[in-house]
Structure formats: C-alpha cells, structure tokens
Amino acid sequence: MIKIFYTLNGQAEVSETIGILKQISMEDALWLDLFNPTGEEKRAVELFLHTTLQSRAQAEEIESSSRYSETIDAIFANTNFLIPSAENYTMESVSFVLTGHTITSIRQVPLRSFTDIQRRILFNSKLYPTGFHVLVGILENRIDLDADMIELMSKEIGQYSKRVSLGEDVNEEFLLDINQLQENTMLVRENIVDKQRMISSILRSDKTPDVINGKLGVLLKDISSLINHTDFSFERLEYLQNTVLGLIDLEQNKIMKIFTMVSLLLMPPTLIASIYGMNIQLPLVGGMWDMLIVLGAMLVIVLLVFLFFRRKNMM
After folding, report:
1. pLDDT digit string, tens, across residues 278-301
2. Domain extent listing, the chain
3. Domain 2-248: which CATH class?
C-alpha cells in the first residue's frame, strides 16, 4: 500500500496509486508513505526518486553505518518504533529517505504517529512545507507517545511499590511482573536512544535546512529528559526488586527459625527416647510407672529448654 502526498495549486492532495508519480515532479511530491509495499510500488518509487530503497533486513541492522547514511542527493535514516501490547513491547523498524524536499517512509505495520501527521497535512498543509517538516512532525508525535508510555510505566511501578508497602503477599508472580517491567523499561530506553542517534546525525547534516535545526534541538532536549526518566524508573524497579527479595529472605528465615526451634525442643526428648529404646538393662525400666516417669522427664526437659530460649529472646 502506498500513500502519496503532493501539492497541487498550493493545496495538499493524496493519492494511493503509483500512476500519480508520472504526473507530478519531485518539487510537488511531499511524502511517499509505503506501508508493507509491493515490489511494483517500490520499483515505481525508486524510479521516481532515482535512488534505491533499503530492504527490511537493511533497516533492521544495528550498525551505525546502516542506521544512518548519506549520498550526494539523499539521506537514509532507520529507526525503531515501539509498539505496546497487553503484556510486552515490540520493536518495528522504519526507514526514511530524504531527497530534496521529499520524504519517503517504508514500514511494515500501522503506526499512530504516521496516521496523525497524515491527517494534519490534509487539514493544514502549510505546517509541513517540506519532507523535513514531516519527519520532525512524526518524531514529535512519537516522542510524545513514548513519554506517555513512560508515564504509564511509572504509575505501574508506583502501584507495585504501594503493594509492597502495604505488606501484601509477594511471590514468584510478583517478581516476574517486576522483571517484565524492567524489560519494557529497557526497550523504551533503547528505542529513545535510537531516535537520539538518528536526530543527532540529521542535525549534523549539511542537507538539513536551518529552520529545522532548532526543532531538532528541542527534540534532543526532550529525549534527554526521557532518558533520565527511564534511568530513574529502572533504578526504582531494581530497588523494588531488591526489597521484595529481602522480604522473601526474611520470610524464609522466619520459617527456618521455627523449624530450628522445634528441632531443638525435640532434641532432648529424642535423646531420652533413644536411650530407653536400647536393648540393655536401664534404670526405671520394668516398673509399673516407668512409662509415665520417662514421659514426665521428657516434658520437663522440653519446658526447661523452652524457658531457656525464651529468656534469651530467641523465641
């Protein structure tokens, strides 16, 4: 699928057929958005731009040279967009090609940032006179969404912290939830840092218009604040995880203490029972009250041991 945004008599128009590329010039084309494109659509765009588009495999490479590169006529930039789901987050690569005042985007999944900017272009195209403005608009929208995700994660971390403070039962599932939050936080940070690198590279490019540099600088400041926030959230999760592990250790220590005290209390009676269980002649054996005497001795010893540990504040 392809959406081609272009200007006609000063007004923004959109077409979903590649045939329009034969009727407009590069100066008229604003944004070529390829969403899960076919081979025919990619070839038509490459012929129109006089350049080669990157494949999905190239867009997903993590080397710096693959994430951003320039030629004489074009800028190639790749970045990841985070897609939240009910349980975890996934990364999707998006490629941007800036040729003159035209931007081309290649993606495989629907993205809210793209849909919002497309509506704004049709509503007021004067806000997006060039492809660089479109790119800045997409990044601004995406960074706002990332900030919302970080805020939601912070609230979720606060809820887990409150549960620990209220003394709720913490178990294996609780620890797994905290671990998943840590994974999501790292993904968000990785996603934001990736955009930081791309924006920094575009900012250093001679092809970037001066009017865009100020907006890119503001985006970098916003990204820096988000990175600091994610770092704080991760430290908070680590502290919460350590607290939970400490509580679990304390609970286990209490259980072990109970078992230890029971073993100590039963040790003297066990010794007496072992002695009188031997097949030899022993005192207090053979009489009518021998069983009651032995049991009484066991109870007295248990009581003495109990009082001893109680006095030592060990029970």
Report:
1. 655 555 555 555 666 666 777 777
2. 2-248, 255-311
3. alpha beta
